[in-house]
Amino acid sequence: MSVKSILISQPHPGSKKTVYDVLTEKHGVKVDFHPFIEVVGVPARDMRKQKLRILDHDAIIFNSRNAIDHFFRIVEEMKVEIPATMKYFCTNEGVSLYIQKYTLLRKRKMFVGKGTVASFLELLKKHKVLNYLFPCSNIRTETIPDYLKETNIKFTEAIMYHTVNSDLSDLASVYYDILVFFSPQGISSLFANFPDFVQEDRAIAGWGKTTNAALEEGGLTNTVYAPTPEHPSMVAALEAYIISKK
After folding, report:
1. Residue 63 has pLDDT above 80, yes or no
2. Residues 176-195: tens digit of each pLDDT
3. Worst-scoring range by mean pLDDT, 113-117, 125-129, 221-225?
4. For residue 174, what are the domain limits?
5. Are 88 and 144 found together in one domain?
6. How high is the pLDDT of residue 141?
7. Most buried by CB count within 10 Å: which residue of 23, 26, 36, 48?
8. Do 159 and 78 share a domain, yes or no?
């Protein structure tokens, strides 16, 4: 059966063109975007109740754009003036560049990992005398906080935003040939909205090991797994699958 429609379980990136447009242009496939999870900020008043003192810290750990957005939101709501001496530790270059939305990089001290977990943890180890603030979601991996605890590095974990399931009721009667997921939370939202969901003959594309594990746990088949050496991007994996079905 040929592929005619794909649902990406993320919000539309906002630009006029997306990396998925190639699937429409080359293969005539309809591609829709619908976020399966949403990010809700924790109000500053709740952070005050937790007695968060941002300026007690020497450095901030950022591992996502959401963390950056909500950290600077909290800073503004709490009317905190961040000193020029504050250090920023970012898991990769993409995260570090995003900080430019809020502050000039040349005025700050920036430390950036090489894109792997190991390289970032090594970076933290080289600066273990600092007192870190780790803005994060209620749903996050244990890797960074566990490492900080194991190496006796002083830090404060601050939950500044929550990851919650989206309302997907508008998709109840809509069929797509491929559903694309990038996180276990997306799978959780699928079943929260549709407890009796059955894959049937539709394909599911899952990104990464944790998403694949969530699919398996839910009794679903990861038809289009990515990344792989042959298909390092989700677009490449989807295109190969579309071609195989023609």
Report:
1. yes
2. 999 999 999 999 999 999 99
3. 113-117
4. 5-36+166-244
5. yes
6. 83
7. 36
8. yes
What percent of the chain has pLDDT above 70?
98
Distance, CA of 98 to CA of 101 (rounded, Å): 6
Instruction: Using alpha carbons, list the distances in angstroms from residue 121 to 63, 64, 124, 127, 224.
Output: 12, 15, 5, 10, 31
- How far is Cα 43 from Cα 78, in angstroms, rounded to an integer? 10
Residue 108 has pLDDT above 70, yes or no: no
Which of 163, 190, 223 is the last residue before a domain boundary? 163
Q: Would you state the pLDDT for residue 103?
A: 84
The pTM of the full predicted model, rounded to 2 decimals, is: 0.78
Of 7, 64, 29, 19, nearest to 197 (Cα)?
7
Please check whether residues 199 and 90 belong to one and the same domain: no
Query: Do 25 and 49 belong to one domain?
Result: no
Residue 16 has a CB neighbour count (10 Å cut-off) of: 6
The reply to whether 155 and 45 lie within a common domain is yes
Bridge partners (DSSP) of residue 137 are: 161
**Close Cβ partners of 75 (under 8 Å, ≥ 6 residues apart):** 54, 82
Number of C-alpha atoms within 13 angstroms, CB side, residue 143? 12
Domain boundary among 105, 137, 163: 163
Give the C-alpha separation, 216 to 225, whole Å. Answer: 12
Mean local confidence (pLDDT), 219-244: 96
Token pair in block for residue 133: 């603030």
Q: The CATH number of the domain where 67 resides is what?
A: 3.40.50.10090
- The Cα-based distances of 56 to 7, 52, 132, 146, 230 in angstroms read 45, 9, 9, 21, 47
